[in-house]
Each structure stands twice: as C-alpha cells, then as structure tokens.
Amino acid sequence: MFGYIKRKIRFLFLKKKFNEGLDKNFLKNFIGLQKLIGFKISNPNLYLKALTHRSYLEVNPTLTKSNERLEFFGDSVLNMVVAKFLLKKFPKKNEGFLTKVRAAIVNRYHLSKSAEELGLDKLILFNDKYLRGSKDGFQTIMADALEALIAAIYLDKGIKKAEKFIHKKIIKSFEFEKEFLIDKNYKGQLLEYTHAKKLPIPYYKVVNEEGPSHSKKFNIQVFIGDEIYGEGSGKNKKIAEQEASRMALQKFKK
Q: Are 61 and 151 in contact (CB under 8 A)?
C-alpha cells in the first residue's frame, strides 16, 4: 500500500514539474527510465519523443511527433562513437575490417538485443495492433528506439554522456571474439559467390507489398538469370533482400 502511494505521489509530482501534456504512460515509467540511463533527465520531452513509435500517435492524438528524426540523428552519433572505439581497439586493422565490425555492432539484431537487455521494451510507446505478433517488427522498433534514445541523451546532456551510455550499454555487450566473424551481409555474399562462379548478377523483384505506411511488409524474390533462387520478407526492401539472399545461399550450399 505504501509503495502504491509513493508511486502515485511521484507521478503527480512529475506531471506538475514538467509538462501537463506529457503522456501518462511515459510519466509512469519516468523513474525507471532515469535508472536505466543512469542520470537525472533535464528535458523529459526529448525522451518522450525518443520512445514514441509513430504508431502510438493514433493512441494519443495530443502527441504530434514520433522518434523518427531522433533515430536518424542517434544513428550518426552511434556510428561515430563506435568508429572511434574501434580505431583504438584495432590500431593495425584496415578500413574494410573496421567497417565490418562496426556494421555488426550497430545492426538491428545487436541493437534490439541490447535494448531488450536494458528493458527498453517495457518503456517504448507503440500501438500493438500494427505489430500483429511480428517479432521482426518489434526488433526494429526496439533498435530504432535505442538510437533515438542516444540522440535524446546527446541533446540533453552532451556527447560525453552519450558516449558513456553507448560504451556501457551497447559496445560492452558485444562479443568481439565471435560475433564480428559472422558475416550477415548475405546480399554481398551472394554477389561475390555468383561472380566467383561466373553466374549472372542477382537481381531483386518486389512480388508483394502490404500494410499501412508506418508498418509495411515487403516480399521480394531474388533471381539469377531467369530462375528464382530465394524469397524473403521484411518491413523494408533492404531487410527483405537480405533474407532472400540468405535463402539463395542456402540453396547453393545444398
């Protein structure tokens, strides 16, 4: 009972201290968010925006902006910090190696895994009906929210705080001894394979596109010559092409 009263007082205090227009679900999670990032938030509106998926604008029409612009900015900050770290960690490695490792650290799979370990999945504001139980879709939402959160930290507290957060929550959990050795650029692998075997260059065809604008699903087939070698689906063409390429490589291995 005492715990409930304490949480209620905190909720009312935050609502009064900040902005009456802040989303009630965001305010309920505000204390947890501060614990997650490890410092006191100065501008809560930045973090509200960072954790708001565009599908949630339908749930709360008073919100007018999602995390898409912050995600764009956070992606740049993340890439810069990871690149700086890798230059120090691997002083003798070439640009190709560094690019490959950075891509493995900042890809959707590792970011969504990091976001889940942080408990960010419990803080993101989204409209569940558009996911339709899609694990792939929610992984993307979590990865995007983590990048947007990095942008919010940078804009609220500066590069030092953002860099510390990235090192502690994203880079530290990356298993350098094994993860970066797994090449997940299946499209590139397929191109290299067909070139080595003197086969026609793979080309990709969208066979189906469905869903609302904020939750698209693409189905794409990859052709080598006139034959279909693989088919994949995803929330954008890039993901679908990678999946189709992966299927094509499996077919060649068989």
A: no
